[in-house]
Specification:
By secondary structure, this protein is of the alpha/beta class. Helices cover 49% and strands 16% of the residues. The protein folds into two domains: 162 residues, Rossmann fold (3-Layer(aba) Sandwich); 183 residues, Dehydroquinate synthase-like, alpha domain, CATH 1.20.1090.10. The chain is globular. It binds glycine (GLY).
Length: 357
């Protein structure tokens, strides 16, 4: 488990980084970023005191984008560590979105059989999802996250000021995972997430609700770190969501992961209501909020076979059955639910009807 440390302001950020790095030899601190986080977030670290705090830090910068989360970038990180004398007692600071925390975590997990790493997520999505929970890895052979390891960060520093340069679309991607955490936790937390406005997400007052959202995942991961049972509930919305994501990619009109998950939540909450009695009023409040924030993905019933085919390829399935994590109420999760194709199609019918297609 990684401790999650909320950071209020730049002074506290510098103080905490100073405390963390003082446990490592001065020339043994490495910082991984990408071209986006170098431009927008590294200056926040370096302003003022940090240059004197971390004088010998080696910066490793990757090009931005998930297509760079591969073996070449991994080799570059290993090579930079190796050529600059990194040891088992080195530290890697991962400053970036999920691509950086995933690949940086994996590089650290494997270099000299494992060095420490600290995540500084710079997107809301990475903060609530990738940066915590110990999943690290790279894309390989055309497949996402094909090679990786479970290895928790030594600490996750949460500094919402990093999100100030994100646009609403990026914030919405993180918001989708927060909605999922709300559904998996308590009515109170679900309500506070529903009421949240995207621009609030970079404000200091947002920190409490963000920490509660992160804690939902942390509590689940603590009970099942390697996803043998309970952690599968974090896939709520993702069985249909991944199908939407890869189908839209094939149509050459790719939609962001968070949007696909939000639309997937509509279908999976429909299934939850239809099969497990999820309350109708809570269903409606959630789906209207999703429509308001995310709009709609256009498709038609002609696309059902392609979408269902994609659900069959979901990693969580066992055998030929499509498996879901569903809810009988907020926080009442049922994993490994096998659903017949005609019922899945019914949820897609509901989606199209609700969106007015
Ligand atoms: N993103 C889901 C998980 O970390 O298990």
């Amino acid at each position: 488990m990684s401790p999650i440390t909320p950071i209020r302001d730049q002074e506290q950020l510098h103080a905490r980084l100073n405390e963390i790095t003082s446990a490592y030899p001065q020339d043994q601190v490495f910082l991984l970023c990408d071209s986006n986080s170098r431009q927008h977030c590294l200056p926040l670290l370096r302003q003022g005191k940090l240059e004197t705090l971390l004088p010998d830090t080696h910066i490793i910068c990757l090009p931005a984008g998930d297509q760079h989360k591969g073996i070449d970038s991994l080799a570059l990180i290993w090579q930079t560590l190796s050529q600059n004398g990194a040891t088992r007692h080195s530290l890697l600071l991962n400053l970036g979105g999920g691509m950086i925390t995933d690949i940086g975590g994996f590089a650290a997990a494997t270099f000299k059989r494992g060095i420490d790493f600290v995540n500084l997520p710079t997107t809301l999505l990475a903060c609530v999802d990738a940066a915590q929970g110990g999943k690290t890895g790279i894309n390989f052979n055309g497949l996402k996250n094909e090679v990786g390891a479970f290895c928790p960060a030594r600490e996750v520093l949460v500094y919402p000021a990093f999100f100030q340069t994100l646009d609403n679309k990026d914030l919405a991607c993180g918001y989708a995972e927060m909605l999922k955490h709300g559904l998996l936790s308590t009515p109170q937390h679900w309500q506070e997430v529903l009421r949240l406005e995207l621009p609030d997400c970079c404000q200091a007052a947002f920190s409490d609700i963000l920490m509660r959202s992160m804690q939902v995942k942390a509590d689940i991961v603590a009970q099942d770190p390697t996803e043998n049972h309970l952690r599968k509930c974090l896939n709520l919305g993702h069985t249909v969501g991944h199908a939407f994501e890869s189908w839209s990619y094939e149509q050459q009109q790719p939609v962001p992961h968070g949007y696909a998950v939000a639309w997937g939540l509509i279908c999976e909450l429909y299934l939850s209501m239809r099969l497990l009695g999820f309350p109708k009023d809570r269903f409606q409040q959630t789906i209207y909020r999703i429509k308001e924030v995310f709009g709609a993905l256009p498709f038609s019933c002609k696309n059902y076979p392609a979408l269902i085919e994609k659900m069959h390829h979901d990693k969580k399935n066992t055998g030929a059955q499509i498996q879901f994590a569903l809810l009988s109420d907020i926080g009442q999760v049922h994993i490994d639910q096998t659903i017949e194709e005609k019922t899945i199609e019914e949820s897609l019918d509901f989606y199209l009807d609700f969106m007015g297609y």
